[in-house]
Every structure is written in C-alpha cells, then in structure tokens.
Write a structure and sequence with these properties.
The structure holds 2 protein chains of 2 kinds. Chain A has 5 helices and 4 strands. Chain A is α+β, with helices and mostly antiparallel strands. Chain A has a single domain, classed as Glutaredoxin (3-Layer(aba) Sandwich). Chain B is of the alpha+beta class. Chain B has a 3-stranded mixed beta sheet. Chain B has one domain: 2-Layer Sandwich (GMP Synthetase, Chain A, domain 3). The chains are: A alpha+beta, B alpha+beta. Chains A and B meet through helix 4 of A and helix 2, helix 3 and strand 3 of B.
Chain lengths: 110, 89
C-alpha cells in the first residue's frame, strides 16, 4: 500500500517544480497556512501546484513520515522538501528564494 | 487550547536554555506564534530547528490543543544581529 503511495508522491514531486501538499486547492484554500503558502508563491510568478490531501489521512501520514515534518502544508521545490512558510519567509528575507527558483526553472542545458 | 506556561514548559524540557516569546494570534489559546532563541540551534539548518520544536510540542499538536503554530528560531548570535538591525526578536 505505502509502495503505491511512494510511487504516487515520487511522480507528483517530479512533475511539479513547486509543489504544495496542503488543505484545499489553489483557488479554495481550506486553511490559513495553505493560503499563505499560495500567496507566497503567487508573488514569484513561477508555476506551482497545490495538491489537496485534507481528507487523505493515509497520504498525510505517509508524507509526514517521509519528511519527518508533522504539519501541512508541505512544500517541495525542485524535488527537495522545504517545510512551510516559516522556512520560506526566512529564505525570501535572506535573498535565497529567487536564485533557488531561477535555478530550478532554468532550462536544462543539454 | 493550551496555556502559554504549558507550552514554555514543554519547550524547555527539550531546549533547556530556550528564551521563548509566545503570541496568542487569535485570543483563543490555540493559534500561537513562537519565537525561540537558543544555542541548541547552532549548526542546525532551518528544517531541523523546526523539527525540534515540533517534537517538543508533539503531544499538544497531535491532540489538537495547539491548532496552528508559527515558528521562528534564532541562535543567540542571530538574535543579537537582528537587534542591531532594529528588528524585534
């Protein structure tokens, strides 16, 4: 069972350069912190995806174990886990976010 | 719902030298913002710092006494740098 989840999450994280596992959707966030995270990435103008896991307890448990992080939202950038806006805000303040996103979205050099 | 004292006690069990500033964001004693200054954070990246705080508060977060928690963590050096820049810590 968690094998299926593992494959599902691997695929999702690979497909979206900025991925938010949250509560609700991009247009209808169901939680203040998910909304905050959506607002955060909306400022940068890069495409991002929100996947709603509010009612999928099994997937939430799996994601929490995977990241060793108990809360939603959970943000992945370029396949790496970056926590939530507590972390992202600090990175934005230190000027780390823009270069990271530019790098992640840079066209792959052949 | 959980008292500030109970949160601080749990944090200090895990982080004995923690200087804790707690803000009750909604007045309902379950949405908190916490700022922690401790030397324990030295050499830890941001993710590991948050993980440590979540572990200290695992029980009240799991049973719902804490509904939402914003976390800011600083080493004493980082905190004093912020003071120098006129930011509140």
């Amino acid at each position: 069972m968690s094998d299926t989840l593992q494959k599902e999450v691997q695929k999702e994280v690979a497909e979206h350069k900025i991925l938010i596992y949250g509560k609700g959707t991009k247009t209808m966030p169901m939680c203040g912190f998910t909304r905050e995270t959506v607002d955060f990435f909306a400022r940068y103008g890069y495409p991002f995806e929100v996947l709603d896991v509010l009612r999928n307890m099994e997937k939430r448990d799996y994601l929490s174990k995977l990241t060793n992080w108990p809360t939603l939202p959970k943000v992945f950038i370029g396949g790496e886990f970056y926590g939530d806006t507590d972390i992202l805000d600090g990175m934005a303040k230190n000027g780390e976010m823009e270069p990271l996103l530019a790098k992640v979205f840079a066209p792959a050099s052949s | 719902m959980i008292s500030k004292e109970a949160i601080i006690r749990r944090l200090r069990e895990r982080i004995p030298d923690a200087e804790v500033t707690l803000v009750d964001r909604t007045g309902t004693m379950d949405h908190y913002q916490v700022q922690i200054v401790s030397s324990i954070f030295q050499g830890q990246n941001r993710l590991d710092r948050q993980r440590l705080v979540y572990q200290a508060l695992d029980e009240p977060m799991k049973d719902g006494r804490i509904h939402a928690l914003e976390i800011k963590t600083y080493t004493p050096e980082e905190a004093s740098m912020r003071h120098d820049q006129g930011e509140s810590v």
